[in-house]
Specification:
By secondary structure, the protein is of the alpha+beta class. It has helices at 85-108, 149-162, 164-168, and strands at residues 2-7, 39-41, 57-60, 68-70, 112-120, 123-124, 131-132, 135-143, 173-181. Strands 1-9-8-5 form a 4-stranded mixed sheet, with helices on one face. The protein has a 3-stranded antiparallel sheet with strand order 2-3-4, with no helix packed on it. A two-stranded antiparallel sheet has the order 6-7. Strand 6 (123-124) and strand 7 form a beta hairpin. The longest helix has 24 residues, at 85-108. It starts with a strand and ends with a strand.
């Protein structure tokens, strides 16, 4: 049995009224407890102009050890075999929703058997300044037979409201979900 329903939740930016919404360099008890550091490296020359330099670069984020090979979107002279920053933002929103949902489901005693998402966005060059448009998540969740579908949808909304990445973005994140039963 499959049920499909789309829930649109829009996040317009971080909550700056929350006590946790502090700058990383703010002293005192509200210092962030989960710092994130990424290191990015590029080498080459821009001396020959805008059309000639390599857009390829690498990033690491300890304690993870893989090096992420990045480039610009191929429309901007990047290497299409490498991730580009825009893809990483869309992936981060999708991954955060997944992890938030799985946590909410586990706390509620819901048996989630699989979760697949096709996350999409687009570069809106007509916006000023240019930016990603809305990020749309199209999750398909398979749960154990007999699971309350309304509860699954409620947990997806709770997860969205608790998703750190969606709460950090200036573009809206829209969550759609198809619920399947095993």
């Amino acid at each position: 049995m499959t049920s499909q329903h789309t829930t649109s939740q829009h996040t317009t930016g971080p909550d700056t009224t929350s006590p946790q919404a502090t700058r990383p360099d703010t002293p005192g008890p509200s210092m962030p407890t989960h710092p994130y550091v990424a290191r990015v490296h590029w080498a080459g020359s821009t001396g020959a102009g805008i059309r000639s330099y390599s857009r390829d670069h690498a990033a690491v984020a300890a304690p993870a050890t893989p090096v992420v090979e990045l480039s610009a979107d191929s429309a901007f002279r990047g290497d299409p075999d490498r991730f580009n920053p825009e893809q990483l933002v869309v992936m981060a929103a999708s991954s955060c929703q997944l992890l938030s949902f799985l946590g909410a489901a586990a706390r509620a005693g819901i048996d989630v058997l699989s979760y697949d998402d096709e996350a999409t966005s687009y570069l809106d060059l007509d916006a000023s300044p240019a930016r990603l448009g809305a990020i749309r998540l199209a999750a398909t969740v398979t749960v154990a037979a007999g699971t309350d579908e309304a509860l699954v949808r409620e947990l997806a909304e709770q997860a969205h409201h608790g998703c750190y990445v969606a709460n950090s973005l200036a573009v809206p994140v829209e969550v759609g979900m198809t619920v399947r039963f095993a």
